[in-house]
Amino acid sequence: MTDHASRAPDTTTRPTRPTLSKLTDELGLLYGGDYNPEQWDRETWLEDARLMQAAGVNLVTVGVFSWALLEPRPGERSFGWLDEVLDLLHAHGIAVDLATPTASPPPWMGHLYPETLPVDRDGVRLTYGSRNQFSPSSEVYRGFARDITRDLVDRYVEHPAVRMWHVGNELGQVCHSDATALAFRTWLDERYGSLDGLNEAWGTTFWSQRYSRWEEVVPPRRAPYLINPTQELDFRSFTSDALRAVYREQRDIIRERDPRRPVTTNFMGFFPLVDYWSWAQDLDVVSDDAYPDPVDPTSLASAALTQDLMRSLGGGAPWLLMEQAVSAVNWRDHNVPKTPARMRLESLQAVAHGADGICFFQWRASRAGAERFHSAMLPHAGADTDVHRGVVGLGADLARLRPVVGGRSRATVAIAFDWSSWWAAEGEAGPTRRLRVVEEVRRWHRALWERGVAVDLVRPGDTLGEYDLVLAPNLYLLDEPDAANLRAFVAGGGTLVLGPFSDVATRDAHVRPGRFPVQLADLVGASGEEWLPLDDDGLDVVSDLWAGPDGVLPGIAHVDSYVERLRLDGGEGVDGSDGSHGTDGSGTPAEAVVVASSSAPAGLSGAPVVVRRRSGAGRAWYVGALLPDAALDAVLAEVLRESGTLSALGTPAARLGVEAVRRGDLLFLLNHTGSPVSVPVGSTPLTDLLTSAVHSGTAVVPPVDVLVLTERPS
Ligand code: GAL
């Protein structure tokens, strides 16, 4: 059922949209960072431009925090310094991603117009002297933002240095002000059509919350006890839409004047306040900021997941790593630096997962202000440093990787992830706070990542026909059309694996009546009646899988926080050793098979915990517990085996010891460990684009190093 042709570039759907390729076809992989010349004198600008050139930098993001200089007093303009900077960069062959400076309004704005400042949930108005001090719903802020954007674009639209536009920075501000209340009401009116519709959706007969006038409806604010969960959920969506409107109105001003160059803004991975699926179509190029913690042993697996999300948000198109740290950040409690080797590894990992540009925050370390101790491409100690030599080295590596440009990856496996469902599942007052949705997505993704299996992220309602396997670690909210889509996927021969606490609630976060997973219980052949957060004794779960080929458990897995009271519906099927479990041989739906069951305590003894069932040509699994890592891994290993999923090496998916990723016709092997790892690569000689070394049979990947292998002779 895999149809790779359907992942060809989507030029049919977006014929006129500017893309990154105009830039990358000319410059190769993009390389650079945020450049804040307003902090430096002219001599330093000159030194910067020369050093950038020497390091292979070909793109810098300029002007992100320059509003107070560009507009020193309301309505005044001071562009002279920026003219000079852009001319200088252009003279040195460095392209510019020019930012609208709207992330940090000048102090005069908050001083003269306090209503532009955001108000928190407790009613406290946040102040200037930091950044991000704006309310997305303030028409005064938005008016000033539109004006400076218009003037900036008018001034530089013909400047040859400017090759891309960047709106604001990390849009993510929440506001609970009175102006926000007005905008929230308008949004709700559009959604529900009437106050009656809102009362119905919010279930306001509960606790006497019924609204009789729109003026009574407010954003969630500090209240004596729990807030209405649908009100919370709607406010999340509203906030995401309000920020998107801020982005779009600046984007539209740019587009009107410059339809040719791409417009972007920098995302923040699995950011909880913005539904990036809903935004993705608004960006010509998806960009992301990523700051994996070098002391977290799981951070590179998580980074790979985020990179897969970024690629998927853009429909598979190349994306940009817009910001990362060269070495240490300054905002954790204890900021352990990265080695240059680790910095290189992380950068090339992003390239492997679809990035066509690698940038940093920031070019030159700031001497003053809140980020003095954040690392930079040019540190306080200057160019004669290991950090800067690492930067120069990476520039050379990226130049060697020019053949990567535009390459796409192909996945037969997808992970379904939905922001609204995430928001609702972690809202207040549920069975447990220990189910962290993104953490679950990470754990499920990790099992694939370790086995070199390519993964896309999808929404449950997306077209799924190109995938063989869809994993849904948690879909607490599941709309009827989305459930029908998953059902059709299985009917079409796909395998669906559904995680715990899924298919519980409607889009309005009302609990669906019936045994769960309510709409899909018949698909998995089992259903649940009760969610069971566990006491300190936890629960033992037994399965043959725990001791399987990839299993590391002695037959018993200890679940310590959450399980569900499940039963098989319609009796148990037979687990055929040929993988024909749950089928009567005719391909018609059959009984479910228990894959794992509880061994204690009384009342749950022997109850199913993990089940699977064949349904037509497809299969459906249900995982009714937060399994410990090794047990979850064993389940997913079995799913991969059963579905015949291959690794990037073309072999049946099994742990590889390195990260293996295929992009276009290139094979990336990334060794995240401190020891060399040997990888079987077949007998055809493969050339490493980074070193020109030729490998065949076995390739040895040195510690904290990367091979980028091609069949094309060098
Ligand atoms: C990002 C931000 C940058 C800089 C960086 C430091 O979130 O966009 O401006 O503050 O963090 O890590």
From TrEMBL:
Annotated active site: E170, E323
InterPro entries: Beta_galactosidase_C (IPR013739), Beta_galactosidase_Trimer (IPR013738), Class_I_gatase-like (IPR029062), GH (IPR017853), Glyco_hydro_42 (IPR003476), Glyco_hydro_42_N (IPR013529), Glyco_hydro_b (IPR013780)
Residues annotated as signal peptide: none
Documented EC number(s): 3.2.1.23
Keywords: Glycosidase, Hydrolase, Metal-binding, Zinc
Superkingdom of origin organism: Bacteria
Location of the Beta-galactosidase trimerisation domain: 411-537
GO cellular component: beta-galactosidase complex
Sequence positions that bind Zn(2+): C175
Residue ranges constituting the Glycoside hydrolase family 42 N-terminal domain according to the UniProt record: 34-400
SUPFAM superfamilies: (Trans)glycosidases, Class I glutamine amidotransferase-like
Domain spans labelled Beta-galactosidase C-terminal: 657-710
GO molecular function annotation: beta-galactosidase activity; metal ion binding
Binding locations of substrate: R131, N169, W331
Alphabetized Pfam families for the sequence: Glyco_hydro_42, Glyco_hydro_42C, Glyco_hydro_42M
Gene Ontology biological process terms, A to Z: galactose metabolic process
Catalytic activity field: Hydrolysis of terminal non-reducing beta-D-galactose residues in beta-D-galactosides
PANTHER family documented for this protein: BETA-GALACTOSIDASE GANA
Family: Belongs to the glycosyl hydrolase 42 family.
Protein name: Beta-galactosidase
